[in-house]
Amino acid sequence: MPRDPLIGLVGKPSAGKSSTLNSLTDATSKVGNFPFTTIDPQRAIGYLQIDCACARFGLQERCKPNYGSCVNGRRSVPIELLDVAGLVPGAHEGKGLGNKFLDDLRHADALIHVVDVSGTTDAEGKNTRGYDPSVDIAWLRSEIVAWIRGNLMDKWGSIKRRHIAVKATAVETLQNQFSGYGSTSAVVARTLDRLALKEPLEEWSNETIDRVVNAFTDEKFPTVIALNKIDHPDADKNIAKIAKMQDPNSIVLCSAVSEIFLRKLAKQGYIRYTEGSEFVDTREDLIADGDPDGGGLKELDDKNRNRIENLKDMVLYRFGSTGVNQVLSKAADILGLTPVFPVRNTTTFSSGASDSKAVFRDCVLVKKGSTVADVGKKVMGDAPIAYIEGVGSTRVAEEQIVSVGKNDILSFKIGRA
C-alpha cells in the first residue's frame, strides 16, 4: 500500500526531536507484519492510531492487517516520517545545515515542530535556564517565510513580465514558482482564496507579496507544535504563554522520554501499559486488584518503581497521557486524513484468497476531499478500472467524496468499462 503523506519532524538540537521520532516509530506492540521502522537515515515509519472499519461490523477478531496491527478495533496504520535536521536561526541564509534543512523540508505535507517547553536549551540547543521557547516557534516560521519570499523576490521582475506576456492566471504563475516546494495548483488556489485579493498579480505591492507568502506557508506547511518535556517544573509557565500566542488546536503537550521509558518496561514485562492512555499497571497494582499472579509481570526495583509513580503524577494523571500518540493524530487532523479500506469483496471484506477469513487487510490514508477516483489512482496506479463497488457490492461513482463511514470501503474491479 502507498505510504504517503509525509510528515516532517523539525526541532532545534536537544529539543527532543530524536526522542519524539523514536517514540513514534517504536512499534513494539504494533508491528504485526511490518517488520521494520527505518527506511533510510532520515525516513522512518510511524504508526497512526485510528478507529478501524472492522469495529462497525463486529469483525475485530478477524481483522488481520498486512501492515501495522489492529487490537479490538483500534488500528495502527503506517505513516511515513521525515527527520528534517539542521534547524538553526539563519537557515534560510545557509547557516548550519540550512540549505539541506530547507531542501528536506519541501518534501513534507505537514510539520511537527518539537519544542523544548522546559526552556532549558537556548536557540542553538545549549543548556541554559529560563529560555523562552515561544521564540523557537516564531523563528521556525520566519525561516520558512524568508526562504520562500527571498526566492520569489529574486525573480519577481521577470515573473511579472512573463505573467503578462502569456496572459496566465495568478494560480498558474505562482504554481510555476511554488512547485519546487512540493506545491500543487490546488494549494495555490486555496492560498489565494484565503486572501480574496482584488488586484491583479502584476500590481501586487511588497506588502501583498508578504501576505501571499505567509498564506502559502500556512497552506503548504501546516504545523503541529509538540510542546515536549512537559514534566519539567519550568514547563507550566511556558505552556501558558504559548497557549495564548498560538492556535490551541495546533498544540500537543507531550513527554517523549516518558513514552520511551514506559514502552521499554512494558516490552521487558515489568508493566502493563496501554499506549496513548494514562493506564499503567505494575505487578503490585494487579495483585492489589485481586490477581494473585500480578498478571505475570516482573517485580520492579525501587528506582523504577519510584520513577513510575512520579511519571504517573507528573504526566499521566495530570495530562491524560504522554501525548506522543496524539502528536501524529493531530498531524492527521490538520491534513484532514481519511482512512480508506480497499478490499476484494465488499460483502465479506476479504482481500486475499476466497477461503481466507481475514478482513480489512489494507488501509490507505487520503487527504480530505479525495474522491473515489483519487483513491483508485493511489491504490491501483494506472491499471484500468472497469467499475468500483462499495459496501454490499453497490456501485460507487468515481466523483463521490470519501469520508469516515462513507465510501471508505471500496473494491476496484480491473478491466475496461
TrEMBL record:
CDD domains: TGS_Obg (cd04938), Ygr210 (cd01899)
A single GO cellular-component term on record: cytoplasm
Signal sequence bounds: none
UniProt cross-references to PANTHER family, sorted A to Z: OBG GTPASE FAMILY, OBG-TYPE G DOMAIN-CONTAINING PROTEIN
One annotated GO molecular function: ATP hydrolysis activity
Name of the protein in its database record: P-loop containing nucleoside triphosphate hydrolase protein
Native source organism of the sequence: Cercophora newfieldiana
UniProtKB keywords: GTP-binding, Hydrolase, Nucleotide-binding
InterPro entries associated with the record: Beta-grasp_dom_sf, G_OBG, GTP-bd, P-loop_NTPase, YGR210-like_G4
Lineage of the organism: Eukaryota, Fungi, Dikarya, Ascomycota, Pezizomycotina
SUPFAM superfamilies xrefs: P-loop containing nucleoside triphosphate hydrolases
Domain of life of the native organism: Eukaryota
OBG-type G domain ranges (all copies): 5-274
